[in-house]
């Protein structure tokens, strides 16, 4: 069973991600700010990170950069309310594996999560 | 021979004088042309530049609004997509969706207010006595919450203000103080009239506002780096500032990390107001 870290500060967004992913057979943990997300991601206990960009305490791009700087290679899917191409490129160049713009369809997110986990050979 | 030389000297002097006059006239004409071009360019380009800046501001506003509306849309879509058959879950989802729609509606209303704040007729100004207003604001703040509100000072004097808008601004500051003030601590409201200015303030004992955030928090949809997502649309302080500025006033912030925050609406006292906004 894959373990997914949800870095999202909007409680209601985190709530449905948590609910939907659990119902799909994943184990989930929610981190509500950038510091907590980075600490959890560095613990090595997760197979994939869903990362919101606008997080309190530490911006999502900073979390991503520090994570990659620490040679953590877990797949990261960035979730953001910004639809600008600059943000998309910055996220992908910064080490994100995928990028989804809010509002997204949960089924599509789920498909992308499974695809990334399959690519890394993590249990689904 | 002598006559010819004198004539030549005379002609050279005339020629030098002519050249000097022509040069001076040319320079003056160039200067005049430059000044006229400068003025004309200013008159023509200034409105164009202002129109361009207004268009940029409009685009920024649309970007901001689009960005902010995506969060409630994500919540609504996500919760509806995962809606099951359990009646309790359905009730909970309906409540969440309804709340998010209210949040979007509030955002639209507050944006309309912000847009209107720059237009004539935004304020219905009249004479307002600062002391009486302070007691009225204190009563309204106390009705907001169970928290203890204390009166810090009461000023005496008149301002020319839109009573309703000014109340709205101070109540917004009071709501922020309730949200960010340390649980169990008192909140403070006060006023003063001094040196031609009226001050109305709200103070809390919350975590305070970091130096880096002090200017930014007045921008629409802004929030402090360490703060949780806003309960409202993130437009509260932008509205307070817009209301203060419509009164020819300003908002001042005194804060330090861990030392709470004091927001003050500063307006000209009545003697300083020559014409209502």
Detailed description of the structure:
- The complex is a heterodimer of chains A (124) and B (277).
- Chain A is of the alpha/beta class and 124 residues long.
- Chain A has one domain: Rossmann fold (3-Layer(aba) Sandwich), CATH 3.40.50.2300.
- Chain A is built from five helices and five strands.
- Chain A has helices spanning 11-23, 34-42, 60-69, 85-93, 106-120; strands at 3-7, 27-31, 48-52, 76-80, 98-101.
- Chain B is of the alpha+beta class.
- Chain B has two domains: 1-116, Helix Hairpins; 126-272, Histidine kinase-like ATPase, C-terminal domain (Heat Shock Protein 90, 2-Layer Sandwich), CATH 3.30.565.
- Chain B contains five helices and seven strands.
- Chain B has helices at 2-81, 87-116, 130-144, 163-180, 236-246, and strands at residues 126-129, 149-153, 158-161, 187-194, 197-204, 250-255, 261-268.
- In chain B, strand 4 (187-194) and strand 5 form a beta hairpin.
- The longest helix of chain B is centred in the first third of the chain and has 80 residues, at 2-81.
- The radius of gyration of chain B is 31 Å and the shape is elongated.
Outline of the structure:
Chain A has 124 residues and is α/β, with parallel strands linked by helices. Chain A has helices at 11-23, 34-42, 60-69, 85-93, 106-120, and strands at residues 3-7, 27-31, 48-52, 76-80, 98-101. Chain A has a 5-stranded parallel sheet, sandwiched between helices.
List the helices and strands and how they pair.
The complex is a heterodimer of chains A (124) and B (277).
Chain A: E1 3-7, H1 11-23, E2 27-31, H2 34-42, E3 48-52, H3 60-69, E4 76-80, H4 85-93, E5 98-101, H5 106-120
Parallel strand pairs in A: 1-2, 1-3, 3-4, 4-5
Chain B: H1 2-81, H2 87-116, E1 126-129, H3 130-144, E2 149-153, E3 158-161, H4 163-180, E4 187-194, E5 197-204, H5 236-246, E6 250-255, E7 261-268
Parallel strand pairs in B: 2-4
Antiparallel strand pairs in B: 1-3, 4-5, 5-7, 6-7
């Amino acid at each position: 069973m894959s373990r997914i870290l949800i870095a999202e500060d909007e409680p209601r967004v985190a709530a449905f991600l948590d609910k939907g992913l659990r119902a799909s057979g994943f184990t989930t943990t929610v981190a509500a700010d950038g510091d907590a997300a980075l600490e959890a991601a560095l613990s090595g206990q997760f197979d994939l990170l869903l990362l919101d960009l606008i997080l309190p305490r530490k911006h999502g791009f900073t979390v991503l950069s520090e994570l990659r700087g620490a040679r953590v290679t877990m797949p990261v899917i960035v979730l953001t309310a910004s639809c600008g191409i600059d943000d998309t490129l910055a996220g992908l160049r910064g080490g994100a594996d995928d990028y989804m713009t809010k509002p997204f369809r949960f089924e599509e997110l789920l498909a992308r999560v499974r695809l990334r986990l399959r690519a890394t050979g993590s249990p689904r | 021979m002598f006559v010819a030389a004198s004539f030549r000297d005379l002609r050279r002097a005339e020629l030098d004088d002519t050249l000097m006059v022509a040069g001076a006239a040319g320079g003056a004409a160039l200067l005049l042309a430059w000044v006229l071009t400068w003025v004309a360019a200013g008159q023509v380009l200034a409105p164009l530049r202002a129109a361009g800046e207004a268009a940029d501001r409009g685009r920024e506003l649309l970007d901001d609004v689009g960005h902010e509306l995506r969060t409630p849309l994500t919540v609504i879509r996500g919760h509806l997509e995962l809606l099951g058959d359990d009646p309790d879950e359905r009730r909970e989802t309906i409540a969440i969706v309804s709340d998010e729609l209210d949040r979007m509606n509030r955002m639209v209303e507050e944006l309309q207010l912000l847009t209107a704040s720059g237009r004539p007729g935004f304020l219905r100004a009249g004479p307002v006595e600062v002391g009486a207003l302070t007691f009225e604001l204190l009563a309204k703040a106390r009705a907001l919450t169970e928290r203890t509100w204390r009166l810090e000072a009461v000023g005496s004097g008149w301002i020319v203000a839109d009573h309703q808008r000014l109340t709205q601004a101070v109540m917004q500051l009071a709501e922020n103080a309730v949200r960010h003030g340390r649980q169990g601590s008192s909140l403070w409201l006060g006023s003063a009239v001094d040196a031609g200015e009226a001050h109305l303030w709200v103070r809390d004992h919350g975590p305070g506002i970091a130096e880096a955030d002090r200017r930014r928090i007045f921008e629409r949809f802004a929030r402090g780096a360490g703060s949780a997502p806003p309960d409202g649309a993130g437009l509260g302080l932008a509205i307070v500032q817009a209301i203060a500025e419509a009164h020819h006033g300003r908002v001042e912030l005194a804060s330090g990390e861990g030392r709470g925050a004091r927001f003050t609406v500063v307006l000209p006292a009545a003697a300083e107001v020559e014409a209502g906004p």
